[in-house]
Amino acid sequence: MVNSNVEGVEQSVSTGTLPGWEQVDSLVAASHDRNRGCKDGAVADYIPVLAQADPELFGVCVVEVDGGVHVTGDADVEFSIQSISKAFVYALVCEEFGHAAMADLVGVNNTGLAFNSVIAIELNDGHPMNPMVNAGALATTALMPGSAPDKQWDAIHSGLSAFAGRDLVLDEVVYRSEAVTNTRNRAIARLLESYGRIGRDPLEVVDVYTKQCSLRVSARDLAIMGATLADGGVNPVTGKRVVSAEVCRDTLAVLAANGLYERSGEWLFEIGLPGKSGVSGGLLTVSPGKAGIGAFSPRLDPAGNSVRGQQATAYLSRVLGLNIFASQAYAPNESRGY
Ligand code: DON
After folding, report:
1. Which of 175, 209, 315, 338 is catalytic?
2. pLDDT for residue 13
3. Is the pTM here over 0.90, yes or no?
4. Rounded to 10 degrees, what is the CA torsion of 21, 336, 282, 242?
């Protein structure tokens, strides 16, 4: 779509175009075929119910900014969105508070540490570092408009549903499993409180955050949500605007720097796109101006990122010419399997 607010300037939000429909379709299928045999990584078990996930599930979906959908494998199997919710709650809160306030309140820099690090807060004088790790995500959820936690939850639920273009459902089993075991997130919220960095009851914020992580999505949903960010904030399937183009730009910058936690640098080096992972095995990637990619495969690397999701996305980034630092499509890295 055309997207500019500079007077006299009309240009597309990014460079280049995707290959033709059939070529994208066959490359999406190939991203699955090439990586389906990989058994590397392990299913998350620190949230007890996640340990029951079927490790063989593997789905990939690409949604183009014109609304075209390419699916392969288990792209319609649902799982809890987990940390990928952080990207969309951040976008919703950015819409309210704007660029400068969000940089000040939540930060944008990588911690270089695990997603649930406590020491990252201490090392930064009690300030959260960025909204894609738990401390910054809790601070962001606390900023969500709403007079009470249930109003905040309603706004998050309807906002993430607008990104997906359908009414997303809360997975009560996942929510309860995490709610009774999330002592670490409660500690992080209390620590933020001690530094005056969380403006609401910390345990109520953790509860809303746990609910946002428990929304059920599929790889197809993630691709549509990503395509909405790729399309400057307009959901290409429903045609409805969800957030502004400025908010998409800020969200994608934060994802590029922080979306895969302490492996974000390696991800940007290999894949060259903003992305966000979740411990259920979901992986969202955005090619600005072109497409959203959703992948799902529950086995994770040590940082909590889906192994086959990364492999399939790396392959697509290369062969579809999506890497924002590359001037043309390039060959897959056979030695790494993608
Ligand atoms: O806060 C947690 O621990 C989970 N609800 C989400 C963590 C997560 O998805 C980290 N991702 N890779």
Report:
1. 209
2. 58
3. yes
4. -50
Query: What value does the CA radius of gyration of the chain take, rounded to a whole number of Å?
Result: 18
DSSP letter string over 11-70? Answer: -BSSS-----HHHHHHHHHHHHHTTTT---SB---SSGGGGGS-TT--EEEEEETTS-EE
User: At residue 337, does pLDDT exceed 70?
Assistant: no
pLDDT tens readout for residues 132-174: 999 999 999 999 999 999 999 999 999 999 999 999 999 999 9
Pocket flag, ligand 1, residue 258 (CB < 6 Å) = no
> Which tokens hold the place of 46?
């620190």
- Pseudo-torsion of CA 271, 273, 276, 277, nearest 10°? -10
CATH class for the region spanning 85-213: alpha beta
Look up the CATH superfamily of 21-82+216-319.
Answer: DD-peptidase/beta-lactamase superfamily (3.40.710.10)
For the chain, the distance separating the N- and C-terminal CA atoms, rounded to the nearest angstrom, is: 30
Is 279's C-beta closer than 6 angstroms to any atom of ligand 1? Answer: yes
Tokens 């949903």 correspond to 221
Q: Where are the domain boundaries for CATH 3.40.710.10 in the chain?
A: 21-82+216-319, 85-213
Which tokens is 204 given? Answer: 């109520």
Using one digit for the tens of pLDDT, what is the confidence trace for 66-107?
A: 999 999 999 999 999 999 999 999 999 999 999 999 999 999
